[in-house]
Amino acid sequence: MDIENEQTKRLNENNMKNLNENIDDVFTENFANNDLNKIDEVPMTSDYQDKNDEENAKNDLENSKKSLGKMVKRFRRRMFVSFVAVALIAALIGGGIVAGIMAYTNLGQKTQVINRYLPLSSNNSNANLITNIAKIVSPSVVGIDTSVSYSNGFRSAFVSEGSGSGIIIDSQGYIVTNYHVIEGASTITVSLSDGRKFSAQLIGKDSKTDLAVLKINATNLTAAKLGDSSKLEVGDLAVAIGNPLGESFAGTVTSGIISGLNRNLQSDYGAVNLIQTDAAINPGNSGGPLVNSNAEVIGITSVKLTSTDSSDTQDQFGMFHSQGTLVEGMGFAIPINEAKPIIDELIKHGYVERPMMGVSVQEVTQQDAAQYNIPVGLYIAQVQQGSGADEAGLQAGDVITAVDGTKVQTFDALQSIISKHKVGDTITVTFWRNGKTLSTKVKLMSSSNAQ
């Protein structure tokens, strides 16, 4: 490249030298053949012999030469500017061609880059999208530490029980987390992202949906923006923020995609509908946010499935307990659209009001039915005093076989029918007692009566 530049430099210098020589030759020749000859041909008669006239002629000649010199210089400057302009245009054209070739050459490489987090706004890029999400959401994520009271008969003390995460949902200090994070806790401590710590009050809890609401008395709180989980699609960006393994790793940010929707799983608290993601979720992330590309909370992280062996403590849903398959990248979150009404109920009442019969039941399988000579259905183990079931005359030992004309053989089937009703509605219960099939009307009571 240095040799080429030196050759180009010499070529330009030679071109400029030849250009100047040509210009000098042209104008010298024109001047010699025309203007100077004309001046020499002026007749020198006696009328012009006096020195004044001679001086005037010399002055005219000198002025003519000076004017001509100025013309030559102006012409040289114009030619030089034109030459430079042509050179610049040529360079631009050449550069444009090169740039076009480079763009075309790199086009194949660009098509090989797969943008995992499409669609993105024009103001964002893959390089800073997750960074910006973390900056926006992290101030709304808190750490939650719990302890239980312990006594040995002589003295009592609080013993650390566990830790989790939570989301500030209101500037007044309301925080949502998982029920299993605070279950059985005697004291609850909330740690903010700015380092402040506060004792938290339990406002309400709902074991069925694994949700709980806490409140702290703090100022300058940043509430997270809640999104719309119904708009999620498989493949969308998913960012999880929380405190895996406790305070030492507070504010950990992991990213992935939405791996699945409407995952109906069975938990210790009943059937739940969850979002599946491959974003890394570990113990301590529970209760933290799952966020979309707009930095909106679209889920509350709940559990990570690492093994289908029932002895694995990470399989909190008890899925595939008969197998022992190791799995990875299967995290779950409660959809925010399902959590919102629960959160509102917990803030308003401290509990979630649901219709219920007021009975405790046990499933009767085909094998049980054959062994005890009773029908397949739901065996009533206990009837709550004063409940709708009690007032309707149901008793312990009865076997519920149908509700509103639909056979019920599992607890989930019974709950599915009841959940379609409101508190105060009446359902028709068909049951078996001492070899006879009977029916009765049961008025559904509020679950608050069982709190």
UniProtKB/TrEMBL annotation:
Documented EC number(s): 3.4.21.107
Domain PDZ residues, every copy: 346-435
SUPFAM superfamilies: PDZ domain-like (SSF50156), Trypsin-like serine proteases (SSF50494)
Transmembrane segments: 80-104
Residue numbers spanned by region Disordered: 42-62
Domain of life: Bacteria
Keywords: Hydrolase, Membrane, Protease, Transmembrane, Transmembrane helix
PROSITE patterns: PDZ (PS50106)
GO biological process: proteolysis
Enzyme class: hydrolase
Molecular function terms from GO: peptidase activity
Record field: compositional bias (Basic and acidic residues): 48-62
The family this protein is said to belong to: Belongs to the peptidase S1C family.
PANTHER family documented for this protein: PEPTIDASE S12 (PTHR43343), PROTEASE DO-LIKE 8, CHLOROPLASTIC (PTHR43343:SF3)
Name of the protein this chain belongs to: Serine protease Do
